[in-house]
Specification:
By secondary structure, this protein is mostly helical. The chain has helices spanning 23-59, 64-78, 82-93, 100-121, 125-128, and strands spanning 3-7, 14-18. A two-stranded antiparallel ribbon has the order 1-2.
């Protein structure tokens, strides 16, 4: 049971050679290709998410973590994947209208962000009137 995996010049295309008619090698190859495709999609989505995060940092002066939290909040409210929300935000920056549900979710997320920031700078209610 010997299995050899060769990488061609194109690193994304894997070729496996199986000896002795090993059917498990074919299953491994299929699993590797699926994982490869999944990782490529994740990397492509990551670039869009980083771009949208940068846009949020410019529009609402905040840190990277807060910008990501805003995007995640919108994603959860819309029941949409984070990469899709990020792609819609980038498209909106380029002139395409942001879907109405994402606009509402963005407004709610920003209200929460500003309310938290405002609450952090205000003294507690019992100390305000002393």
């Amino acid at each position: 049971m010997h299995r050899t995996t060769l990488l061609h010049e194109d690193y994304w295309k894997l070729r496996a050679e199986a000896t002795w008619g090993n059917a498990a090698a074919g299953d491994v190859l299929v699993a590797l290709r699926d994982e490869n495709d999944q990782l490529r999609r994740a990397l492509a989505g990551r670039a869009v998410i980083d771009q949208a995060r940068g846009m949020m940092m410019v529009l609402t002066p905040c840190t990277r973590g807060t910008a990501r939290d805003l995007l995640v909040d919108i994603s959860r409210q819309c029941h949409t994947k984070l990469a899709e929300v990020a792609a819609a935000m980038v498209a909106a920056w380029e002139g395409k209208p942001l879907p109405e549900r994402m606009q509402r979710a963005l407004r709610r997320a920003l209200r929460r962000l500003y309310a938290e920031a405002d609450g952090a700078t205000r003294p507690p209610a019992d100390e305000r009137f002393r």
